[in-house]
């Protein structure tokens, strides 16, 4: 067991984890934050994306011990049913979630983009989500949902 | 028409009712559930493609601390299968394994790592048997068939039907064309892997949660295999992270999760890995097909003969239906006066194929639409004209006895052709740039249930509480297609309530009345109709009560937005509901739906194909091809779809775009292939799903033919729009490069092979030429219905 | 959920300690881990015991551009950092930007990319699959499934940066039990799918150095099915220097993903050097590349197809530099 200290959605969490535990397992199984999904566990689908120090990272490829002292944000950390993040509202309004399984990762990836570049072109948005698979929507509604939240469109 | 929407709730592009829950990560999918004391299950799978199981030694695994349960085939000996005619599976292999990945044993342990270790300790002794992986091999006689005893071939089932006099039709033809096509198999690749969780509840009953599209069928099969009454089992379908047909069968892990919970007394969860999903499969069948059509000089079809060989993999699954679907729906787009269909499904030592979006019809649709494109060339017609000369008319019956009602096909064609400028661009775009056209059609629910019964296919119940709150109960499982939102919208329109204010309880066998499941695009039509009936009964109760209360004529009372309008008075819904409850007692209404009886013929095989209504679509695709690399990219797609009525246009558009995406995957890159019996790459890296960067602009055109029997006129949109995209892309590649790809996916190496053929002076074709050496039995002759067309 | 096997974890704070830890049996070095973790999850390293993470070692992150144009990229610098650094040559930024997906570029490092394990369809497979087939050479078995007649492993060098670095004539700094050394990056690679790096397992790559390269024109082209996520199944890096009269004075053409190491194509380079850089010499150079590499059927698409694409991609790369 290794001691780790993580800031998860603003709260400091101290835990002991086996060295081989991935951040995906930690957020879902140790911290109960099941909004983070998994579709392959091998870095191929993007569904497990979380933000580490503001940057989208695949939690299935990240050892929890290696994330120690980092600031982690999961989908639960950016908005709630009563106070959703603008992207969370926009995804609904644009039909950007069908089964919803890729959605938390898509939203976090898009949020990291908008935090860096509040006015991305459609091409930039597409490049940013090119590591996130969605099997349902065909992505177009996702592009619109993100574009609607750019500074220009707000 | 089943009622006219006048409140504008139906027809409004509104978010899904669960949109915020999804976007905030609150939706609980199967793997998000956990119980204290829960055990983690793992399934040991065959590493042999075809073998007798001599022994399974679990003693070392049993002795491992932390292991609580181990099951092998003998613990669950009852055979099952989703179709009554295909009871050929066991929860865990009993005597034989039939493909790599076939389940053999299951373990449940305190920690996933222990379960993994336990699996590694189980020793299986196999006796290898000859392996069959191709359809050519499967038609041969063998001592060791995959099912049953030899000597015999590996045929699963065969169909041979003839409607009208096909030979006579060919005799009068001015032109006859024959083609052979191949459509490679592929996987649904829903982003969420399958999973199931078994719990013994406090009352001793078994509760199985599963990521399934068919809780009702799972319920029945659990009862059968676990040998306990259905009343002792509760099934809850969790929201699925994508289905596309992947989760419409019943799988080993679901049965085993139930049994494991029973024997350990603890909750047990099984979640498949991505590799296991590719072995569980039930994806698109690889289909080799031959089509021969006779035409008059002006392009009218005189007769058609269609033959399909479908590679079923190791089990029956839905295959008996899949096989029929490869032949039955050609007639719902084109008037075919005489039609012969011969098909055979073969067993091979590969994961079982089954239903995937479009179930059995994308393959023949691809063949048919490319075939017609070529026939148009032969006859000097353009691809639109040849199709329009043969289109079915609304309110007719096809040669194979399918009843066609509403049909917006002409409008679909006209819209995509006009919007894309297809006729002007065709043959006029620069080399390497092309445009293609095709059409398609699909069912709004299968006419018959999967097991024979006379009960409704869908049942809905509505209950009103004393605050006016409305709860809708339906077993329809939302697999992302938006069925829950559809139910809320249909009921909302009838009651004048905002869909997001309704509570919809779904997919739980304890709580909800039966709906057969989310497959064959049946939910909007069937559950929608049942919901509408229940809602109309409820409005009737409320309006009557108000009319009585105010002592006015019932015609003077009507539903408004959140109110009951009685002349110049507006009674808030909640108050109206209280008045009604005082008048009638508990406000509960029910609705049911059963398809009409007269939508089908009565020959053997007539059960597959009929639907209460068919959706129609047309597509134009604009593609660019690099003649040097063979790379094909789709630049733009126009897709018009006759949905009947768009209950929620936002969701309709989503289904169209999603269908286009899946179709592009299938036509350009997705394929489930094997090296021998080994999967070529059971991962999301090797199995190529298009990313956002491969996705073109899509112009979605919604056509509303307002079906007379659909709820508010609605039909379907979940599957139909996929169909025409595939041949439209293939036809566009022909326009771009002058080559014919008669096998898909259009891998760049195959594009180059066709170009090489052209260069060498050949026809510029890549595709199969031969069919397996197989003789079909002589066809069952079925007289066309008297009202069917003749030439 | 696919999980990692039980492992020990070490995060030393100096390179020397790391080198010492790497001398132990079953020790594996982790940088970003984006290659290591999936391989471990697929049980590709059955003897793995300890992960030695470099995350605590200071000074392994960052890019320095010196006054003479020399570029020094520390090993743990992420690919995303390379993509975003406008001081760097376009070819590097584009090649780094073509790796995997945005998330993996945020995690994957330059050092990890240059040392990324070789890949093969018979090796990078999940567990049941592996058990269903006999293990291949690299998985500890007796023979190579791709070329059963041969005694070697043909797993493919799949780094996008490696061919580019070779084309740019980069050097790598290594630290090991015997101290530091610097070698031309070309010498880091060996055309052997198993022992694909010439360095010892204890040696750590600390820095890549690209010497002054003013006037060098370079580009990279990658063949893969999808615009994202996919590994290269052919990579062509080309660097040429032209004089005022358009005579090519220097040429380096490197193929990625067709062998177990990035392959220089001297036959093509010789065609170009000393001659006018025009469509004709480019076509000739491209044709000359066809003969060198013989990829096997162990990645996506067929070997015939990939072989056929070599001259096409070389020509297109060279044309871009004209
Ligand atoms: C889905 C997917 C797609 C991918 N696509 C691509 C692609 O298109 N192109 C591509 O090039 N790569 C690709 N990769 C591989 C990998 O992600 C990248 O190459 C990445 O840059 C590796 O960097 P890392 O720091 O994560 O490496 P790690 O996983 O940390 O290490 C990789 C290997 O290098 C060794 N190593 C790492 N750092 C050093 C060092 N400083 N000194 C000595 N040895 C070292 C490790 O021991 C290990 O063997 C992909 C990976 C995945 C999962
Ligand atoms: S689960 Fe991490 S990328 Fe698929
Ligand atoms: S909404 Fe289902 S995977 Fe994206």
What features would you describe in this structure?
The complex is a heterotrimer of chains A (154), B (791) and C (322). Chain A is built from five helices and five strands; from the N terminus they run ββαβββαααα. With 154 residues, chain A is α+β, with helices and mostly antiparallel strands. Chain A has two domains: 2-77, Beta-grasp domain (Ubiquitin-like (UB roll)); 86-153, DNA polymerase, domain 1. In chain A, strands 2-1-5-3-4 form a five-stranded mixed beta sheet, with helices on one face. In chain A, a hairpin with a 2-residue loop joins β3 and β4 (55-58). The longest helix of chain A is centred in the last third of the chain and has 14 residues, at 103-116. The termini of chain A are far apart. Chain B has 791 residues and is an alpha+beta fold. Chain B has three domains: 39-129 and 194-271, Aldehyde Oxidoreductase, domain 3 (Alpha-Beta Complex), CATH 3.90.1170; 162-186 and 283-447 and 600-782, 2-Layer Sandwich (Aldehyde Oxidoreductase, domain 4); 455-593, 2-Layer Sandwich (Aldehyde Oxidoreductase, domain 4), CATH 3.30.365. Helix content of chain B is 27%, strand content 25%. Chain B contains 19 helices and 34 strands. In chain B, the strands form nine sheets. Chain B has a seven-stranded mixed beta sheet with strand order 3-5-1-12-9-10-11, with helices on both faces. Chain B has a seven-stranded mixed beta sheet with strand order 32-8-13-14-15-7-34. Chain B has a four-stranded mixed beta sheet with strand order 18-26-27-30, with helices on both faces. In chain B, β14, α9 and β15 form a beta-alpha-beta unit. The two termini of chain B are 32 Å apart. The model of chain B has no long low-confidence stretch (mean pLDDT 97). Chain C has 322 residues and is α+β, with helices and mostly antiparallel strands. Among the domains of chain C are: 1-56, Uridine Diphospho-n-acetylenolpyruvylglucosamine Reductase, domain 2 (2-Layer Sandwich), CATH 3.30.43; 217-321, CO dehydrogenase flavoprotein, C-terminal domain (Enolase-like, domain 1), CATH 3.30.390. Chain C contains eleven helices and twelve strands. In chain C, α9 (266-272) runs antiparallel to α10 and α10 runs antiparallel to α11. The longest helix of chain C has 19 residues, at 303-321. The structure holds flavin-adenine dinucleotide and FE2/S2 (inorganic) cluster (FES) (2 copies). One FE2/S2 (inorganic) cluster sits between chains A (97-103, 134-137) and B (191, 242, 480).
């Amino acid at each position: 067991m290794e001691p780790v200290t993580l800031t998860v959605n603003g709260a400091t969490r101290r835990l002991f984890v086996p060295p081989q535990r991935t951040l995906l397992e930690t957020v879902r199984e140790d911290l109960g934050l099941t909004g983070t999904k998994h579709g392959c566990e091998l870095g191929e689908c993007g569904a497990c994306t979380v933000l580490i120090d503001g940057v989208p990272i695949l939690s299935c490829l990240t050892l929890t011990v290696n994330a120690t002292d980092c600031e982690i944000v999961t989908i639960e950390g950016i908005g709630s049913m009563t106070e959703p993040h603008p992207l969370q509202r926009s995804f609904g309004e644009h039909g950007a979630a069908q089964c919803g399984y890729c959605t938390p990762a898509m939203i976090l990836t898009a949020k990291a983009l908008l935090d860096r570049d509040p006015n991305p072109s459609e091409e930039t948005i597409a490049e940013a989500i090119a590591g996130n698979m969605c099997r349902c929507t065909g992505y177009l509604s996702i592009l619109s949902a993100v574009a609607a939240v750019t500074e220009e469109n707000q | 028409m089943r009622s006219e929407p006048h409140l504008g709730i139906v027809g409004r592009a509104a978010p899904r009712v669960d949109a915020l829950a999804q976007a905030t990560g609150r939706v609980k999918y199967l793997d998000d559930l956990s119980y204290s004391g829960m055990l983690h299950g793992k399934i040991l799978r065959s590493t042999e493609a075809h073998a007798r199981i001599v022994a399974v030694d679990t003693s070392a695994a049993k002795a491992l601390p932390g292991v609580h349960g181990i099951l092998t085939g003998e613990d669950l000996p009852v055979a099952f299968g989703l179709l009554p005619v295909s009871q050929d599976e066991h929860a865990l292999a009993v005597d034989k394994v039939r493909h790599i990945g076939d389940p053999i044993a299951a373990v449940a342990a305190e920690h996933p790592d222990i379960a993994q270790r336990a699996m590694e300790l189980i020793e299986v002794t196999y006796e290898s048997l000859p392996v069959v992986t191709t359809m050519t091999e499967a038609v041969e006689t063998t001592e060791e068939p995959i099912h049953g005893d030899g000597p015999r071939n590996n045929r699963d089932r065969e169909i041979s039907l003839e409607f009208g006099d096909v030979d006579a039709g060919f005799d009068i033809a001015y032109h006859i064309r024959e083609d052979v096509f191949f459509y490679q198999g592929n996987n649904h690749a829903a982003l969420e892997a399958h999973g199931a969780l078994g719990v013994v509840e406090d009352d001793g009953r078994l509760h199985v949660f599963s990521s399934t599209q068919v809780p009702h069928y799972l319920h029945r099969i659990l009862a059968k295999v676990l040998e306990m009454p259905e009343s002792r089992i509760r099934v809850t379908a969790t929201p699925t992270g994508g289905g596309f047909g992947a989760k419409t069968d019943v799988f080993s892990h679901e049965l085993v999760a139930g049994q494991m919970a029973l024997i350990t007394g603890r909750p047990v969860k099984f979640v498949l890995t991505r590799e296991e999903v590719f072995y569980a499969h039930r994806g698109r069948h690889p289909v080799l097909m031959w089509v021969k059509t006779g035409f008059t000089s002006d392009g009218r079809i005189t007769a058609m003969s269609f033959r399909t060989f479908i590679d079923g993999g190791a089990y029956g699954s839905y295959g008996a239906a899949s096989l029929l679907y490869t032949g039955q729906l050609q007639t719902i787009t084109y008037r075919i006066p005489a039609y012969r269909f011969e098909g055979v499904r073969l067993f091979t030592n590969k994961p079982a194929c089954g239903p995937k979006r479009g179930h059995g019809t994308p393959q023949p649709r691809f063949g048919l639409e490319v075939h017609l494109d070529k026939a148009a060339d032969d006859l000097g017609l353009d691809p639109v004209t040849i199709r329009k000369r043969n289109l079915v008319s609304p309110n007719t019956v096809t040669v194979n006895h399918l009843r066609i009602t509403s049909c917006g096909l002409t409008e679909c064609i006209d819209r995509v052709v006009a919007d894309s400028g297809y006729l002007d661009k065709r043959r006029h775009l620069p080399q390497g740039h092309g445009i293609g056209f095709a059409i398609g059609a699909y069912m709004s629910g299968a006419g018959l249930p999967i097991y024979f019964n006379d009960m409704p296919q869908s049942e809905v119940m509505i209950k009103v509480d004393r605050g006016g709150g409305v709860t809708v109960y339906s077993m329809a499982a939302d697999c992302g297609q938006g069925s829950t939102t559809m139910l809320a919208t249909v009921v909302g329109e009838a009651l004048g309530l905002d869909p997001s204010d309704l509570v919809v309880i779904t997919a739980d066998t304890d709580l909800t009345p039966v709906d057969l499941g989310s497959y064959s695009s049946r939910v909007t039509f069937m559950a929608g109709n049942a919901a509408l009936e229940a809602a109309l009964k409820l409005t009737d109760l409320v309006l009557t009560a108000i009319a009585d209360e105010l002592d006015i004529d019932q015609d003077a009372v009507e539903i408004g937005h959140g109110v009951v309008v009685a002349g110049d008075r507006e009674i808030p819904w909640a108050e109206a509901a209280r008045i009604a409850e005082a008048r009638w007692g508990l406000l509960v209404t029910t609705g049911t739906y059963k398809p009409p009886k007269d939508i089908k013929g009565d020959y053997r095989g007539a059960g597959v194909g009929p639907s209460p209504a068919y959706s129609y679509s047309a597509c134009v695709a604009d593609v660019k091809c690099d003649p040097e690399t063979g790379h094909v990219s789709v630049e733009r797609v126009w897709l018009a779809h006759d949905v009947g009525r768009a209950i929620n246009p936002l969701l309709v558009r989503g289904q169209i775009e999603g269908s286009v995406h899946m179709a592009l995957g299938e036509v350009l890159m997705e394929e489930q292939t094997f090296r021998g019996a080994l999967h070529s790459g059971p991962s999301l890296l090797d199995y190529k799903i298009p990313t956002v960067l491969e996705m073109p602009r899509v112009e979605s055109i919604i056509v509303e033919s307002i079906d007379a029997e659909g709820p508010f006129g609605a039909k379907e949109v979940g599957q139909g729009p996929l169909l025409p995209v595939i041949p439209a892309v293939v036809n566009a590649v022909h326009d771009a490069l002058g080559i014919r790809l008669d096998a898909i996916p259009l891998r760049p190496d195959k594009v180059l092979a066709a170009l090489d053929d052209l260069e060498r002076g050949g026809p510029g074709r890549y595709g199969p030429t031969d069919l397996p050496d197989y003789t079909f039995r002589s066809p069952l002759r079925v007289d066309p219905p008297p009202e069917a067309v003749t030439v | 959920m696919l999980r990692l096997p039980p492992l020990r974890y070490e995060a030393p704070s100096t390179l020397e300690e790391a080198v010492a830890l790497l001398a132990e049996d079953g020790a594996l070095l982790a940088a970003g881990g984006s290659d290591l973790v999936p391989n471990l999850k697929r049980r590709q390293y059955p003897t793995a015991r300890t992960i030695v993470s470099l995350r605590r070692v200071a000074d392994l992150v960052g890019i320095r551009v010196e006054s003479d144009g020399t570029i020094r990229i520390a090993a743990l610098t992420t690919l995303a950092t390379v993509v975003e650094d406008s001081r760097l040559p376009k070819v590097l930024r584009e090649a780094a930007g073509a790796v995997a997906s945005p998330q993996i570029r945020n995690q994957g490092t330059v050092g990890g990319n240059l040392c990324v394990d070789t890949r093969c369809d018979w090796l990078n497979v999940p567990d049941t699959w592996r058990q269903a087939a006999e293990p291949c050479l690299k998985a500890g078995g007796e023979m190579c499934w791709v070329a059963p007649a041969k005694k070697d492993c043909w797993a493919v060098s799949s780094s996008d940066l490696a061919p580019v670095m070779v084309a740019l004539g980069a050097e790598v700094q290594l630290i090991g039990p015997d101290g530091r050394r610097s070698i031309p990056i070309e010498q880091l690679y060996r055309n052997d799918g198993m022992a694909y790096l010439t360095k010892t397992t204890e040696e750590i790559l600390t820095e890549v150095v690209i010497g002054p390269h003013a006037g060098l024109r370079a580009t990279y082209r990658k063949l893969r099915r999808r615009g994202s996520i996919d590994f290269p199944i052919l990579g062509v890096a080309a660097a040429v220097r032209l004089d005022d009269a358009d005579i090519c004075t220097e040429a380096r053409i490197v193929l990625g993903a067709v062998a177990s190491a990035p392959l220089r194509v001297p036959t093509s380079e010789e065609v170009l050097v000393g001659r006018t850089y025009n469509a004709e010499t480019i076509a000739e150079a491209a044709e000359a590349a066809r003969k060198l590499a013989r990829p096997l059927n162990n990645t996506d698409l067929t070997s015939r197809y990939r072989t056929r694409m070599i001259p096409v991609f070389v020509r297109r790369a060279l044309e871009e530099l004209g």
